Amino acid sequence: MQNITHSLHLPIYTSPMGNTNHDETTAASGYQLLFTSAAALLFIHEIWLLYNKYRNTSSNKASNAPVTPPHVWSFIPHIGSALELRKKTILDFIHTHADTLKSPIFTATIMGKKCVFMADSRMVPMVFSSRNDALDSNALQIHVLTKVLGYKQQDAVDIMTGTVLPTSQGHYNKHILARPALQIMIPQVQEYVNNEPHHNALAGGVVGWKQQGLYDMVQMHIFVASAAALLSPTVAKREYISVYRDLDEGFPYAFANMPRRFLPKFAASVEKLMELTGTKEFKEQGSNFIKVRHELGLSEDALNRSNGGFLWASVGNSIPAIFWVLYYILVKCIQEEVDRIFESLPQGQSIFDLQHLDDMVQLGSAFQEACRLQFGGFAVRDVTKDFVYEPKIRDNNGTSKCKSSTKYLIRKGTRVMGYAGVLHYDEAVFPNATEFQFDRFAPETDGKKAQFYDRNGKALMTPVMAFGGGSHMCPGRKFIGYENKAYVALLLRRFELRLTTKEVSVGIPGPKKINQGTGMNNPDREVYIEMRPRVLEADRALEGVNGMKEE
């Protein structure tokens, strides 16, 4: 993005004789001129907005011609509405301007780019799953590869537009998404969790409740378990968590084109992660997924960046997702389901297989609900040519054809920003949308899958868009879902957990503003819990027998 600088040069008059009155008069005149000019500009701008609104409305009434979405005007060139977006939640920003402009679609300048925002939940899926040839998702991904992960430009282009992409998708399908692959990786996750030193130390005789930072604990466990199962045990070490953390915290700034010299920790973390994924040991001990990556035909540098980027992207969403699930269910616990399924395991088995995890429908529902409430990501598409968008919107009475009365002209060069929260917080789709209901996505009493409908009455194939939609689905979605169930279930089975008294009184944390729009929301503060080993009925019985023997 080009930096655009506008300077306002005002003449400064000084008197060689030091005439104070003349200075004050001149300064006052200058300020008066400045304020008068500003007021005139505002007046002209308002007239321009009214004229365009009248022109668009008149034209549309006369010929049903497409209209240009109204624009959010900003005093700050290039930066535009970026600062306002940083201060508010994204949902507040979208609905506030849609209400003010009286339009479900509007544009706003964000760091030099004119972006299209949509406030009607029926429009959002179009961005997530659209195959419109005027919408391009590759440009932004190439931007991430080059500006964030440091790919060479040609390598990034080859990955997104050449033969590399279908080969890579084949690897994901076989070694990440397929059930046989999950049957290997998910038990590995559980082995790491069961052998976690932090858990074993806590379970080994600590009396009473121990206070623990919830996010810090989840980050520590999930980074190690995910890295071991998805990539290689050589990177599954606590000492590398700081590398991931520095990369994740610097991502929004690097994405916004801040020079790397101003982000020393971020730049060092990217190169360190590439170094770790480039060793001979990493590849020799790597997962089945890693062992086939050489088939991509990438350069050594690009391959290492691809592997490191995959690790960052995987844990970057799974860590906050699991944090939120635990936070919510500490208030509404689903302990009985976990205990029931655990007790059905064969004697001596302490690891859930995929079928056991599939049977945890309440926990799975809680995961979906946490993602609905806390997924803060955009689906972003660059517009490569002008196109007319006609939303399929029924009248309130539902009797009209499924067409909007207004067509919108979306111009080449703009960027369409589909925000999942517009759908996730729509009361017409999810009643009491701001409330966490752990069983919202659980099967109905007759065993049928819970069904949700948009405002047109159409069944939603993907009611929660935390992992994309249509052909743009996250390849790690099944792994993350099973990992969440396995980790939370093992934790609930071994420990009693509760929020501290202070946490209960202060309420839910907000989203970390700097990470808004990039994926699952990170909390804006740490949440403290208390935990202690559970004493189960079987343990109590065993203790009684041992006590009798000692007597």
Task: Count the E strands.
Answer: 13
Q: In which order are the strands of the major sheet placed?
A: 1-2-3-9-6-4
pLDDT averaged residue by residue: 84
Q: Summarize the biggest pleated sheet.
A: 6 strands, mixed
Distance between the termini: 79 Å
Residue share in β-strands: 5-15%
Morphology call: globular
Number of helices in the DSSP assignment: 22
Helix content: 40-55%
Low-confidence stretches: 1-27, 57-62, 397-402, 538-551
Give a verbal description of the structure.
The protein is of the alpha+beta class. The protein has helices spanning 20-63, 82-87, 90-101, 124-129, 138-148, 153-161, 164-177, 179-194, 197-203, 214-231, 241-255, 264-276, 280-284, 288-291, 300-329, 335-342, 354-358, 361-374, 420-424, 477-494, 501-506, 537-550, and strands at residues 71-72, 105-110, 113-118, 135-136, 210-213, 378-383, 387-389, 408-410, 415-419, 468-469, 472-473, 495-499, 528-533. A 6-stranded mixed β-sheet has the order 1-2-3-9-6-4. A 3-stranded antiparallel β-sheet has the order 5-13-12. Strands 7-8 form a two-stranded antiparallel ribbon. Strand 10 and strand 11 (472-473) form a beta hairpin. Helix 15 (300-329) packs across helix 18 and helix 15 crosses helix 20 (477-494). The chain is globular and about 75 Å long. The relative contact order is 0.13.
